[in-house]
Amino acid sequence: MNEQFKYILEPYTGLKSRTTCPACQKKNQFARYIDIDTKEPLSDIAGRCNREINCGYHYTPKQYFEDNKHLKTIEKDQVINNHIKPIETPAKPISEIPFDIFKKTRKQYRQNNFFNYIQNIIGEELALKVFSLYHVGTSKHWQGATIFWQIDYLGRIRAGKIMLYNKETGKRIKEPFPHITWIHKLTPLKDYELNQCLFGEHLLQQFPKKQIAIVESEKTAILAAAYLPTFNWLAAGNLNNLSRKRCESLKGKTVLLFPDAGAFSIWKDKAKALTDIASFVVSDLIETKATPQQIKKGFDLADYFEGNSEEVFTGPREFEQTQINTSQKIKIKKFDSEYSYPEEFLNKKQKKVISWPIEELEKYFLSISIQDQPILLNNHLTIDTPSKFISNHLSIIKSNNGNPTFKPYYDSLMELKNYLAGKNL
User: Which of 102, 249, 294, 322 would you label with 423, given CA atoms 20 to 30 Å apart?
Assistant: First the structure.
């Protein structure tokens, strides 16, 4: 029996059984998770807000325990009654979306509502570059829908979140129902299990020297990348997704967090719980700039950029492990040459292709015998199933030889080759 299964949402017995929501701050709207036996609450922030449409906050026991694995045993015993230990089960290989499914979606941007909205703000040229950078796709599930692909540090395509936006306002379409679903729910995939990562995580390998910033929504990350390309902008996906599991790729990094209005204290608490993974600094920019009305509506960094196209953003240009300089203004500037268009928008006359020696790589991997056991390539790369990793990466670079966007896949194979060659010496 896992620890989190000892807890249920507190049954309604009157106003005293409902507290103030930590997200929207509405009184008597928050149901906490309580211990089945003792009826004691797990935490003041573990629970669900009754205002599912206007707030939607839900912090589960599973997320709570993931975020608090670093607690000492004696501290956990004070929280967990009966000292029940979680059952340890072998880790399963990460499920992946086939590359051919992913590739087919990176087109028809002019029919993509979200793209049309973004290009109205930053222009078509820059919008194309940002969409290419994040591998944003287009879905036919709903006319004009967008796919936000979650690609991890190793280049594994873990998931595809489909969302529908209003092309005029840039707001999500929630009526007559929230238009949000997943690629794996629409495409039969054998033995697939959803295992999310941070949106934009692949950029950590592509631009390892860039400073890291995390926001809540994918839309915000896209706009922030256009206005402030000096950062690797990642998105948690929602308020509660800044979890231990999703932050594993940030090990040893210094990370700047930009929570939405009203969520500053929540992300500050999460940051404290994750200090053993990375050094997190929580920005209060939105919290201090937003009006009471904006806080109520969940004002975020995207809203700030949309209303401030000039050089008005104040934040850290450079930050160290323990100190941040917030006195400088960051200039909003365009992307430089390290960004490229999607294939369908490239002018073939201007296209410069530098091919990679893929055939040589393929011959090497065919010439050796590899056991499908996990390989710790370095501090950041753990390959669960080497044969699958090699096959997928070779397929990707064969289809995109010379495309700089896909160079991290080639680099990973080269690193694996050098590792195996050195091991066999």
Answer: 249
pLDDT digits (tens, 9 = 90+) for 147-195: 999 999 888 999 999 999 999 989 999 888 889 999 999 988 988 999 9
CA-based nearest residue to 366, from 422, 425, 420: 420
Average pLDDT over residues 215-242: 90
Q: How many CA atoms lie within 13 A of 37 on its CB side?
A: 8
Instruction: Give all strands (DSSP E) within 60-167, no chain letters.
Output: 137-139, 145-151, 157-163
Burial 313-347 (b: 16+ CB within 10 A, else e): bebbeebeeeeeeeeeebebeebeeebbbbeeeee
Give the CA count within 13 Å in the CB-facing half-sphere of 59.
28
Q: Please name the helix (run of DSSP H) or strand (run of DSSP E) that holds residue 268, with its range, or none.
A: helix 264-273
What Å distances lie between residue 198 and 157, 234, 248, 283, 359, CA to CA?
12, 6, 10, 19, 33
Contact 364, 417 (CB under 8 A): yes
Contact at 8 Å (CB) between 160 and 97? yes
Domain definitions of the chain by residue range? 3-83, 99-307, 352-424
- Cβ-proximal residues to 362 (8 Å cutoff; 6+ apart), any chain: 394
Q: Is pLDDT above 60 for 85?
A: no
Query: What span, in angstroms and rounded, lies between the C-alpha atoms of 356 and 313?
Result: 41
Task: Give the chain's radius of gyration (CA, Å).
Answer: 23
Cα gap 382→412, rounded to integer Å: 11
Q: Positive or negative, the Cα torsion across 232, 141, 166, 238?
A: negative
Query: 49 and 58 in contact (C-beta within 8 Å)?
Result: yes
For residue 118, give both structure tokens: 């973004």
Strands, sheet with 254-258, edge to edge from the N-terminal-most edge strand = 231-235, 211-215, 254-258, 279-282
Containing 382, the helix (H) or strand (E) segment is: strand 382-383
Closest CA to 285 of 252, 253, 251, 308: 308
Burial class (CB in 10 A: 0-12, 13-18, 19+), 214: buried
Between CA 405 and CA 411, with CA 406 as vertex, the angle to 5 degrees is 120
